[in-house]
Design brief:
Elements: H1 2-23, E1 30-35, E2 38-42, H2 47-64, H3 76-111, H4 116-128, H5 133-149, H6 167-192, H7 196-203, H8 208-245, H9 250-259, H10 263-291
Antiparallel strand pairs: 1-2
Helix pairs in contact: 1-10, 3-4, 3-6, 3-8, 3-10, 4-6, 5-6, 6-8, 8-9, 8-10, 9-10
C-alpha cells in the first residue's frame, strides 16, 4: 500500500510539472499588417521566449509570495475556495449517482438479462453511451425551452444565481459515466458466471439472491477500480459544461484564465482538480485493501 501511494504521488507531481510546462508554452498571437486589408497571424515559438515565460512565472510567485491577487484585487486562493464549493454541488452528486445508481442498475440489468426488462435496459444503455455530454446538455435545454412555450413555468437555464442551476450540467456529465458503470457491472457479473465457487454455492443449496450477493462482492474490486475513470471523466467534462451553462465555478474560470494568459490563476484552479483525482486514486486503493483483502474467485 505504501509503495502504491508513493507511485501515485510521483505521478501526481509529474502531472503538475507537465501541466505547468504546457501552460507556459508561448501562445500569444503575433499579427503583422502588410498594408490595406492584408494581415498575417503567427504563433512564434523560440526557446528563449519559453525560458522568459518560465522565469516570469517563477518571479511572480517569488514577488507575490504565493499566487497573488486577481484583476479585481481579490486573493486568488480565496477566489478558488469560493468557486470550488460551486463545483462540489455538481461533482459530488454526479460521482455518487454514477457509482451508486450505475452499479445498482448494472446489477438489475444482469439479474433480468434474459427478460424483456433487461433487454430494454441494455438497449437504452447502448443509446445513452453513444450520446456526447455536450449534445445531451444542448438537447435538455432545447426540450425545456419547448416546454416553456407550451405553458411549463419558466426558470433560469444559465448562470449560477439560483440553487437549481447546477442540475442541468450535473445531469449532462453524469449520464455517460453512469451508463458506463451499468454496462461494466453487468459485464463483470457475466464474467463471474463461469467461476467454480458458483457451482459450490449451488451445491450447498444457496438461493439465487444469495449467490448474486457473493458475485457482487467478488466484483467489487473491479468496480472500485472504475472510480478513477468516472472521476477523471467528470473532472474533464465539468469545465466545458460550466462554460456552456455560464455556471461560474472553478472549471469555468480555469478555461477563462487559460484564454487570458493568466498562468498563476490557471494553475490555482487546476490544482484542486488534480488533488481531487489524486485523492480518488488513493481512497479507492485504500478501500480495496481494507474492505476487499481477498481476491475474487473465492466464496465470501
Amino acid at each position: 500500500m505504501a509503495w502504491d501511494f508513493i507511485k501515485s504521488l510521483l505521478v501526481f507531481l509529474i502531472i503538475i510539472f507537465a501541466f505547468v510546462l504546457l501552460l507556459l508554452l508561448p501562445r500569444e498571437m503575433d499579427i503583422t499588417h502588410h498594408g490595406g486589408l492584408v494581415f498575417t497571424a503567427d504563433f512564434p515559438f523560440t526557446f528563449d521566449l519559453y525560458k522568459e515565460k518560465i522565469a516570469a512565472f517563477v518571479e511572480h510567485f517569488r514577488m507575490e509570495k504565493g499566487f497573488g491577487n486577481n484583476s479585481m484585487g481579490v486573493p486568488i486562493l480565496e477566489e478558488v475556495q469560493k468557486l470550488l464549493l460551486r463545483d462540489f454541488t455538481i461533482i459530488v452528486p454526479a460521482l455518487l449517482l454514477s457509482m451508486g445508481a450505475g452499479t445498482l442498475l448494472g446489477i438489475v440489468q444482469f439479474y433480468f438479462r434474459d427478460k424483456i426488462i433487461g433487454k430494454v435496459q441494455a438497449f437504452f444503455s447502448w443509446i445513452f453511451s453513444s450520446i456526447p455530454d455536450f449534445f445531451l446538455f444542448i438537447a435538455l435545454q432545447y426540450l425545456l425551452i419547448k416546454l416553456f412555450y407550451i405553458g411549463v413555468p419558466k426558470f433560469s437555464l444559465y448562470g449560477n444565481d439560483h440553487w437549481y442551476n447546477f442540475l442541468i450540467p450535473m445531469i449532462a456529465i453524469t449520464v455517460f459515466p453512469m451508463v458506463h458503470m451499468v454496462k461494466f457491472t453487468s459485464a463483470a457479473l457475466e464474467n463471474e458466471m463461469g467461476q467454480d465457487y458458483l457451482r459450490t454455492a449451488r451445491s450447498k443449496g444457496l438461493t439465487t439472491l444469495n449467490i448474486l450477493k457473493h458475485m457482487i462482492w467478488n466484483c467489487l474490486y473491479s468496480i472500485l477500480n472504475q472510480t478513477q475513470f468516472v472521476m477523471l471523466y467528470l473532472l474533464t467534462s465539468l469545465p466545458i459544461m460550466q462554460k456552456l451553462a455560464s455556471f461560474q465555478g472553478a472549471g469555468y474560470h480555469l478555461l477563462t484564465s487559460i484564454q487570458e494568459f493568466d498562468e498563476p490563476r490557471a494553475l490555482a484552479f487546476m490544482l484542486p482538480y488534480l488533488l481531487m483525482m489524486f485523492a480518488t486514486i488513493v481512497l479507492s486503493k485504500l478501500l480495496k485493501y481494507k474492505l476487499l483483502p481477498q481476491k475474487a474467485g473465492a466464496l465470501q
